[in-house]
Amino acid sequence: MSGGFVSRGFGGKRRAPDDLRDRLPPGQYLEGGFPVLTAGPTPTVETADWSFRIDGMVANPTEWNWQQFNALPAEEIPCDIHCVTKWSKLDTSFRGVSLDTLLEAVEPLDAFAMAHSYGGYTTNHSLEDLSDGRAWIVTEHEGEPLPREHGGPARLLVPHLYFWKSAKWIAGLRVSDHDEPGFWEANGYHRRGDPWQEQRYWTD
Ligand SMILES: Nc1nc2c(c(=O)[nH]1)N[C@H]1C(S)=C(S)[C@@H](COP(=O)(O)O)O[C@H]1N2
Ligand SMILES: [Mo]
Asked: What is the pTM of this model?
């Protein structure tokens, strides 16, 4: 990004440096691009083969194929994202379906969920962090289909937590009664990962 701390927000309004710094969690720097961070190979998931499933401790285990998923109400999600490797990207946007809509359909009976991806990546969440308009399954980024390297055809988006919590190539959520560590959490990352509390590692 040119211009250091000065960038154009939505509507082309120039932001003062202080305004931007207020939106940068402790220890983070501004990134103008969109870095790709993937542990292991990038899976190829065709939309014809894709489905998203919520099961485990729920009253109604449900699976949506691509066509069924795209018939659900979707919304535009303007947000800032924060990676634990210290870059933050401000004023980006995704489009997708709120987890509130999806969880309503399955009726969860417990408080935690493991997100599972095509390719085997996992990350743990409390259902509280996935509720109240704070988490989505997204299929578009800035008006374009979500690029494969960023998790296309669909990824989890939980922008209020560090970005490792936003599982790319999402396949499903398994609801359970306990909080088990996912891939990075088992390798030293924090179980929740709130960037404003700098919850980077399990000792934070
Ligand atoms: N399936 C899967 N999801 C993943 C990852 C991964 O390796 N595999 N990496 C995580 C990490 S550590 C980060 S920072 C973000 C990076 O997303 P991006 O590549 O779109 O920037 O995806 C997260 N989701
Ligand atoms: Mo990351």
From this structure: 0.92
